[in-house]
């Protein structure tokens, strides 16, 4: 369960208990149900001091790892989103899940989650029943040799049924509403709490709708993702990047989804923080200039063909190999998958409990070229925490078609080339008098039409001798007498193309909760003593300052040490309560505080201070300045604990100073 690898860490062999972790997280106010004193609302949580700091530190690491290291263009776009934008992106029509209701109580369930939960529970029951039947190697104390022993067989499910359940689960994200209804009938699935039948699945849109302004005429939604804010600003971003691709924009912000039935704590909530990257790339060249630096990183991959065979076997493959074999579609996608792996493991996710699962063809949007989810194993199973998709030219194309604004890259060609184009010609002498004050706006609208819109206008001119042009929010009928649109061969000096988009999309709450599960363990000498082994980079507080006595002599020393740590940007906290030193350390182990410094009488007389490491509870001693410097380097990741042990001598002083 835990992070520490040092053999001196005294971990318990107890199995992970979610209830104990959850009680710690609520008790220490990592997070808590929102509006709790009013009874709370499902799927809404408030983060308290350690949870907020942990999230801020994860986001800070994310900014450094992606925005700063990859020189991305940062954005902060509005949460309230115009409905037209989300209509164009497909969210108004398709951002839906299938919902069923308990036929008697009206309790709602997300249909795919209901099927998944019930089948998983049945398979678990089956495994337990078969567990007793397995051939086990047992020690026979009367004989030197191991002896095989078969216990009584108690098979719960038929093998055929098990295979059917497993293959359904492997494809659970891909079923339509009608198919889910059929599965519910075929597998005789009922509401788990009551045993009542459930209704047929109906579609439910997950967006919270609203209206903008007092008239109620401008419809809006709380955004369900941050991505659209990147696409609608594409031309400005491109301009900011001097007209060149590839480049990436990045945004951290809140998103909202009116989830049907949020039941798994922070993993499925109705308001959450996302961090999204949109990497814009030439569709003809998806190589990545830094791919060489990541190509040897080994990843645990679950490709689509394995899943379509109803299996979940993971292959460990270097990302370079995965791209060259075609398993991962292109270098840029492979690059981001590797960078996601590096980020997640940097903040403390256990690499053995992290896998990248490829979407199957029917799970992916029709326009997507390839898509891999970073899934983290938790007590709730494998959870999608980051989606990483090659979305081709879909987003920019649909916004361009809808608005008539070109969202393209113009690349000067070394050699001119002859191409077939649809070109609009305006008879200006007749056009001006015909449209008077509006003429300029209509002309601009015609000249900025995308290829698809030009083709549509050309067809209209041919069919009804006039094309409908939108300018300044009005529609104008422009007749063939003043506008001609024809296919023409032209000499091109510039290549114009819609870039493709590769989108890594992070759900910060899911990552944060998974990290807390991976970091949680109990000390072997006292199972009630829990520890969160959060790495110093993300730990809410990096260093605890513990004065051994409330004696007035200690006050100036405490002020001095906390001042020194503050000056170095190290988040620290003084615990000068009356609790025993062991208790004070134990409280901070629960908060994941990696280091503690103790001020004792030797600090007053000799200016020394001890340094305790959370996981091992080992202590070192040095002068105040030496210890502060070591803490600083440990927190920056410039020094390991083993190196610190070489720098400072071990402390073997009074017993009550050690936890
Ligand atoms: N309701 C939610 N609560 C918390 N995080 C979420 C939620 N929905 C999505 N996310 C996070 O946002 C990321 C990107 O969103 P995306 O649209 O790809 O998720 P999704 O495929 O709809 O997720 P799911 O299938 O689990 O509903 C996810 O990988 C996840 O980490």
Q: Kindly give the count of domains.
A: 4
Task: Tell me roughly what share of residues is in helical segments.
Answer: 25-40%
Task: Provide the residue-averaged pLDDT.
Answer: 91
How would a textbook summarize the main sheet? Answer: 9 strands, mixed
Poorly predicted ranges (pLDDT <50, ≥5 residues)? Answer: 1-7, 132-155, 655-659
| CATH fold description of the largest domain | BirA Bifunctional Protein, domain 2
Q: What is the terminal-to-terminal distance?
A: 22 Å
**CATH class identity of the largest domain:** Alpha Beta
What's the CATH H-level superfamily name of the largest domain?
A: Bira Bifunctional Protein, Domain 2
Summary keywords:
34% helix; 28% strand; BirA Bifunctional Protein, domain 2; 22 helices; disordered N terminus; binds adenosine-5'-triphosphate; Herpes Virus-1; nine-stranded mixed β-sheet; globular; five-stranded mixed β-sheet; Signal recognition particle alu RNA binding heterodimer, srp9/1; alpha+beta; 659 residues
């Amino acid at each position: 369960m835990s992070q520490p690898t040092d053999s001196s860490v005294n971990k318990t062999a107890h199995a992970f208990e979610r209830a104990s972790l959850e009680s710690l997280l609520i008790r220490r106010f990592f997070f808590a149900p929102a509006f709790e004193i009013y009874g709370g609302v499902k799927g809404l949580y408030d983060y308290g001091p350690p949870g907020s700091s942990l999230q801020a530190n994860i986001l800070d690491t994310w900014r450094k790892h992606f925005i700063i290291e990859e020189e991305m263009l940062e954005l902060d776009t509005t949460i309230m989103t115009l409905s037209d934008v989300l209509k164009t992106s497909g969210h108004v029509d398709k951002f839906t899940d299938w919902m069923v209701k308990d036929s008697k109580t009206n309790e709602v369930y997300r249909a795919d989650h209901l099927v998944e939960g019930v089948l998983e529970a049945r398979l678990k029951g089956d495994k337990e029943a078969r567990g007793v039947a397995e051939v086990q190697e047992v020690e026979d104390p009367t004989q030197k040799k191991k002896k095989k022993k078969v216990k009584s067989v108690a098979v719960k499910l038929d093998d055929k049924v098990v295979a059917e359940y497993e293959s359904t689960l492997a494809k659970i994200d891909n079923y339509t509403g009608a198919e889910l209804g059929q599965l519910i009938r075929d597998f005789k699935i009922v509401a788990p709490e009551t045993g009542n039948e459930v209704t047929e699945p109906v579609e439910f849109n997950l967006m919270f709708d609203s209206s903008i302004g007092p008239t109620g005429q401008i419809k809006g939604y709380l955004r369900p993702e941050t991505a659209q804010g990147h696409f609608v600003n594409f031309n400005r971003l491109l301009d900011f990047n001097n007209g060149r691709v590839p480049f990436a924009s990045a945004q951290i912000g809140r998103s909202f989804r009116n989830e049907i039935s949020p039941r798994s704590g922070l993993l499925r909530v109705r308001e959450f923080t996302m961090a999204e990257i949109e990497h814009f790339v030439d569709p003809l060249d998806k190589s990545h200039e830094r791919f060489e630096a990541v190509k040897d990183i080994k990843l645990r991959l679950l490709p689509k063909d394995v899943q379509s065979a109803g299996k979940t076997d993971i292959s460990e493959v270097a990302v370079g190999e995965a791209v060259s074999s075609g398993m991962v579609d292109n270098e840029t996608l492979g690059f981001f998958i590797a960078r996601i792996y590096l980020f997640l493991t940097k903040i403390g996710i256990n690499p053995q409990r992290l896998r990248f699962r490829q979407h199957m063809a029917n799970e992916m949007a029709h326009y997507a070229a390839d898509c891999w989810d970073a899934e983290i194993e938790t007590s709730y199973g494998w959870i999608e925490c980051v989606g990483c998709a090659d979305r081709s030219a879909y987003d920019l194309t649909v916004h361009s078609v809808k608005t008539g604004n070109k969202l393209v890259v113009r690349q000067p060609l070394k050699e001119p080339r002859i191409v077939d184009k649809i070109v609009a010609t305006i008879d200006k002498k007749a056009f001006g008098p015909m449209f008077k004050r509006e003429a300029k706006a209509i002309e601009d609208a015609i000249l900025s039409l995308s290829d698809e819109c030009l083709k549509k206008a050309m067809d209209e001119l041919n069919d009804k001798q006039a094309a409908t042009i939108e300018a300044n929010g009005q529609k104008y009928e422009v007749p063939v007498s003043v506008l001609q649109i024809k296919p023409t061969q032209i000499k091109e000096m510039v290549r114009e193309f819609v870039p493709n988009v590769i989108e890594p999309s992070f759900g910060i709450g899911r990552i944060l909760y998974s990290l807390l599960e991976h970091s949680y363990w109990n000390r072997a000498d006292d199972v009630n003593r829990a520890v969160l082994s959060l790495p110093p980079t993300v730990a809410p507080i990096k260093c605890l300052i513990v004065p051994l006595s409330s004696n007035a002599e200690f006050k100036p020393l405490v002020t001095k040490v906390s001042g020194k740590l503050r000056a170095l940007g190290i988040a620290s906290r003084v615990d000068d309560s009356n609790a025993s030193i062991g208790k004070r350390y134990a409280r901070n182990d629960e908060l994941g505080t990696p280091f503690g410094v103790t001020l004792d009488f030797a600090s007053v007389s000799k200016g020394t201070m001890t340094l305790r490491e959370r996981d091992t509870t080992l202590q070192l001693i040095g002068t105040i300045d030496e210890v502060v410097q070591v803490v600083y380097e440990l927190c920056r990741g410039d020094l390991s604990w083993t190196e610190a042990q070489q720098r400072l001598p071990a402390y073997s002083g009074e017993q009550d100073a050690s936890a």
